[in-house]
Amino acid sequence: MASQTLYDKLWNRHLVAELPDGSALLYVDRHLLHEVTSPQAFSGLRAAGRKPWRIGPNVAVPDHAVPTRRRELGVAGIADRVARVQVETLTRNCHEFGIPLIELEDARQGIVHVVGPEQGLTLPGMTIVCGDSHTATHGAFATLAMGIGTSEVEHVLASQTLRTQRQKNMRVVFDGAMGFGVTPKDLILALIGRIGTAGGTGYAIEYAGEAIRTMSMEGRMTICNMSIEAGARAGMIAYDAITEAYVRGRPHAPEGTEYANACRYWQSLRSDEDAVFDREEYFPVSALVPQVTWGTSPEMVVGIDGCVPDSAGPDAAAQNSMKRTLDYMGLEPGQALKGLPIDKVFIGSCTNARIEDLRAVANLVKGRKISRSVAQALIVPGSGQIRLQAEREGLDTIFQKAGFEWRAAGCSMCLGMNDDRLQPGERCASTSNRNFEGRQGKGGQTHLMSPLMAAAAALTGKLTDVREL
Amino acid sequence: MEPFTAHAGLVIPFNRANVDTDAILPKQYLKMLGKTGYGDFLFDDERYLDPGDVDIPVGDRRPDPDFILNQPPFDRGTVLLAGANFGCGSSREHAVWALHDYGVRVVLAPSFGDIFFNNCFNNGLLPVILAQSVIDRLFELASQPGEVSLTVDLERCEIVQGENVWSFVVEPGRRDNLLSGLDDIGRTMALGETILEYEAQRRSVEPWMFR
Ligand code: SF4
Questions:
Q1: Which of residues 161-180 of B touch A (CB under 8 A)?
Q2: Ligand 1 pocket, A433 CB below 6 A?
Q3: What are A148-190's pLDDT values in tens digits?
Q4: Coiled-coil intervals in this record (chain A) (predicted)?
Q5: Does the residue B198 lie in any domain?
Q6: Which of A97, A189, B37, B146 maximizes the CB count within 10 A of its CB?
Q7: CATH number of B172's domain
Q8: What is this structure's pTM?
Q9: DSSP letter string over chain B?
Q10: Are the folds of A6-164 and A291-468 the same?
Q11: B17 in contact with chain A, both atoms CB, cutoff 8 A
């Protein structure tokens, strides 16, 4: 058999049928649901008198619109009436259709892409879909994980399959070791800066190279998470001992001999030595500096020692969009990023709210205080389990002593569907994944960066090179 | 879903690259439970001068006169002409529902966000990928005084504007969806036996996937 990439292997294993129109029917092993993109899918099922094909692969959790305070009140504590109805609707739909639900009050609740791996719902070799573009996160476990729309959520519920088109293969090799103060977030931001937000469109990206091989699962998830910001629906990383160590003993992982059998199969979840990729990007990382975005697209990114570009080149359309971006961000061409005063700090999201991120932040801010000029600094753990773990380690005390607010798990200010939002003109150092206009609140100015860099900005009140602290 | 065979309409030139689905429909409207009622909130952040939310009547809000959807004749437009990577970002199908509910039936762009592109075909909205040179030409036409209308014919896969005719390519399955107005689920359910056979075979090699 010809050499195959990891993507090819996952694709072939899940292929139910090639369809006459050139698309394919892929089997879905895990379907994650949340309150925002599922209600219309359940309504559709109901209207057609359909039932879920299988129950077991589905798990739902409310995360997008939930408040991060007063959670002891449960659903009743959601002050926004419309959001409360949406969370109640998820509960009602799950009960009606028998879908397993992790409720808001449950200690396992959290951002869907954090909960999946944590609970062992994400297992190597799976196909995983969710009505959410950051489903690519799960690719860190050698899975084929893709975001889908609500119509497709309904399709998956009804048939356990997805109609989709085969992607091309891209390999990104992050070679070398990351320097001091440089994190997986910096790698993926720099890659997006290089290939652009449409650079990965039509591709499934496999991340490889020394930096990936030595990286923790948390870091790998950060990288795969932002594949969609590079335009790719799926990002993935080969299975290895680090994957195995993370999965072992998780609540939904297989046990005993079945686990041993699974591990044996999972060993094969890597691209063959001589597999051919349609596109390869070689990215040495040892000289990379911490990254920070300056604009309203994740590709508008430079090293912290860099400046806003001087010009957008000769193209009129590019100049227009550059002007629009700088007006929105309140920046000048050529302006240095370092030293730019910030108003708020957000450490959270499915990109960077795992225990390792919180430990790194705690390490840096321990015994220090955030700047008086910072109006609010939020730390929102990715899940209830992470919140508990951080509290067991005393991280919450470190955060609160430094002046951070310690919140309950959810998407929070990553998209501002709850009341954690930027006000117009507020500038934010954020560990999330999107700096789109209005993403964190209408008129809010977002700078994306790593948790270390966001913590450094909190301490000094301005964009800061964490390596100089 | 209503079938889509051909559409004639006025062009809305929206010359910006990387228009994301957050811009097309901001987050506060994702709390709604239906597939309709989003049209008034299309491009909400840019379209109104004051902030909006689900329970703020749009009649009480001030439209931004500088925004293209508030300017005649474009306020009657139904064919959106856009820059590269239109619909990137979030998977929210709400962005497609908002465009459709507003009345947009066709989006022309050099490239699209992947998930958005997919979502369009499940909702009777036709996204057409055209060469940058054709897109440039259309923007040039649209920048001249007066209005530009064109016809998008899905049966012939052609765009007709005055004397100009451009052809385009759509994957056959997706084209069928739009032409027939049928969604995928029914057609997939007809393959139920195949899915069951697949499951039986998979279960024998990866039983842990079926616990
Ligand atoms: S944390 Fe942000 S990016 Fe992640 S699922 Fe929630 S809203 Fe989406």
A1: 171-174, 176
A2: yes
A3: 999 999 999 999 999 999 999 999 999 999 999 999 999 999 9
A4: none
A5: no
A6: A189
A7: 3.20.19.10
A8: 0.96
A9: ----SEEEEEEEEE--S--BHHHHS-GGGGG--SSSS-GGGTTHHHHBSS---TTS-GGGS-B-TTSGGGSTTGGG--EEEE-TTBTBS---THHHHHHHHHT--EEEES-B-HHHHHHHHTTT-EEEE--HHHHHHHHHHHHSSS--EEEEETTTTEEEETTEEEE----HHHHHHHHH---HHHHHHTTHHHHHHHHHHHHHH-GGGG-
A10: yes
A11: yes
